[in-house]
TrEMBL record:
Segments forming domain Tr-type G: 14-302
Family annotation (NCBIfam families): PRK12740.1-1, PRK12740.1-5
Protein name: Small GTP-binding protein
PANTHER family, per the entry: ELONGATION FACTOR G-LIKE PROTEIN, TRANSLATION ELONGATION FACTOR G-RELATED
Assigned keywords, A-Z: GTP-binding, Nucleotide-binding
Molecular function as annotated in GO: GTP binding; GTPase activity; translation elongation factor activity
Lineage summary: Bacteria, Bacillati, Actinomycetota, Actinomycetes, Nakamurellales
InterPro entries: EF-G-like_DII, EFG_II, EFG_III, EFG_III/V, EFG_IV, EFG_V, EFG_V-like, P-loop_NTPase
Keyword Nucleotide-binding: yes
Amino acid sequence: MSVHDAVRSRAGDDQVRNVVLVGPGGAGKTLLAEAAVLATGALTRLGSIENGTTVCDFEDVERRLGRSVSLSVASIVATGVPEMTGPVRINLVDTPGHADFVGELRAGLRAADAALFVVSATDTAAAGGVIDGATRMLWTECAAVGMPRAVVVTHIDQPRGDFAAAVENCQLAFGDGVHPLYLPEDSAIGAPPTALVGLLSQTVYDLSSGTRTARPADEARRKAIATTRDALIEAVITESEDDGLLERYLAGEQVGFDTVVDDLEKAVAHGNFHPVIPCIPTTGLGLAELIEVICRGFPHPEEHVLPPVYTPAGAPRPALTGEADGPLVAEVVKTTTDPYVGRISIVRVFSGTLLPDVPVHVSGHFARFSGHPEDESWHAEHDLDERAGAISRPVGATLTGVGRAVAGDIVSIARLAHAETGDTLSDPADPAVLAPWVMPEPLLPVAIAARSSSDEDKLVQGLARLQAEDPTVRVEVNPATGQLIMWTMGEQQLEVLLDRFRTRSGIEVAVSGVRVAIRETLKGPGAGLGRHVKQSGGHGQYAVAQIEVEPLPEGGGFEFVDKVVGGAVPRQFIPSVEKGVRSQLDKGVNGHPMVDVRVTLVGGKAHSVDSSDAAFQMAGSLALREAASAAGVQVLEPMDAVTITVDDEYVGAVLADLAAKRGRVRGTEAAGDGRSSVQAEVPELEFIRYAIELRSLAHGTGTYSRQYLRHSPAPDHVVGRLRAEEEHA
């Protein structure tokens, strides 16, 4: 018996569906989740985005902004689903639609086994009949991890909501595998639809009376949907890879309804067939049909490919089978902090059974042993045991305690003090680490500081908690500038992070521009004399150092050459001169480190009593300053090697923008699927806010990576700009 057949034969509480809601902001994901919670009886009335009363947008910042900024879970139970032998638990994972929160999306994709891709019927009309770039990028995110998908079209009750046009546009953007399962029934002109026509069942499901009723479609309706129905059935059978049934169907054999539904699940699980369901969350139209598709057409957790698992030392372990009696392997997909409960971890159990108040082993994020991409060995960054707290099923912020969580469950665990987002939980006697999901690299830096010196400790604690919750945030101290830098995905995320600092930690954070790491070098050769002579009535100081300097090729570093003859500088003080020179190099002449310099000590003077190590260090420092002034100082700015990938239509705009940024294009090549990659060298100074600029430039379709390349001479106008910024700072 196949895995598919085995799963379909299971009943009762073993029936679980983990579904992530994906789609652009404003498409209606949160309201759809709200309606599903209401339809299954977990709510008594529908919440409102405007009033901040929805189940999934429960954070204060979400209520104020009126949009989702965090992953949330609503665990509901569907009963009375046709052909299901018992209740089906559905864990709905709501994710933000804005590109700044793609880390939350990827966590949701990791937790779920299938996706509802939510599209507004009015968005394509407003965009001139096309699916915008940002929405297509979300679809690509799902495709990249092989996530089975169904499409939900919302806002069909709006004046510009055209379901047929939305389906056509989805087919153009997402491929021929997109087919409607239901069609909105025609209603009075100007009135929203109140009924759906099931293409497979040829049944009309009517909500006009306030209660869902079903009736067979009349002959006229059957003829009107015949072509669309045939295309749907052929697509289902084709994508389910049931070749025998396809041959019989094409030969004219009538295919039974239950047979097609069975093949529908196989087709969806393969990831190339995407059924479309129209839905109006505010009236409930399409909710029962959507829940049935989730229960009967979406894969069970055991059918979804589970991530690879390793030992903490990096050795591969046997593949997970997703069985409740298997080894415990679970993953923290989201970490939040509740002011009363403390840290709460949303956990997906991939294998085994998780019990409350028992020790679990926490293995930290994966890292490569050597740091080289070609090295495929892995290890855990930290390993420790701690006791799990209470286990609950979340419905937004509401938690209902349960006695255990088995393979396939998504639950909340309280008081895991050390576990962070992305960490693996396992049996302390048999520790394991899951291969990580790919987190996006934060590319928008800002300099931050506590407005009050008394809040500096709070800021450090808040940053530590922030990084534990959100792996897309990186914090570091720039050693060259001394600034505390927080790397984020964009301005929307930054706004949310600053709000959380205020509301959770009670501190105000000052944000300022990022200063780039400027360096200096010499324009040419020069010479300098450092004379440090002081007499203060007691033991004096006496040291004279004469040096010659010259620039080295890029990357040459620092060389110190001793050419002193005749003992002009005693041997024991030559290292002192070098030490003084090195100290001045670190500070530079204009306040920036000096690099790629050869210093030759050619002469000097000493005193038998007053010369000392400290005196010759000072003489070396003074000599370098004089020599650098004579030779001339060249300011160097950091250059980054960047790779920018965009849709082909935006390549020209990207190239023009790079030219305006003093960039030098190194090449352009096809990246597949109508996209191109541009490689270039760009001054870091011009690239600080590129995460925002590219999003506008490429209409949400662009991605890029950057890596420090070298320091290069800065033009005079840039030097003036840098000095003005330093004076202002």
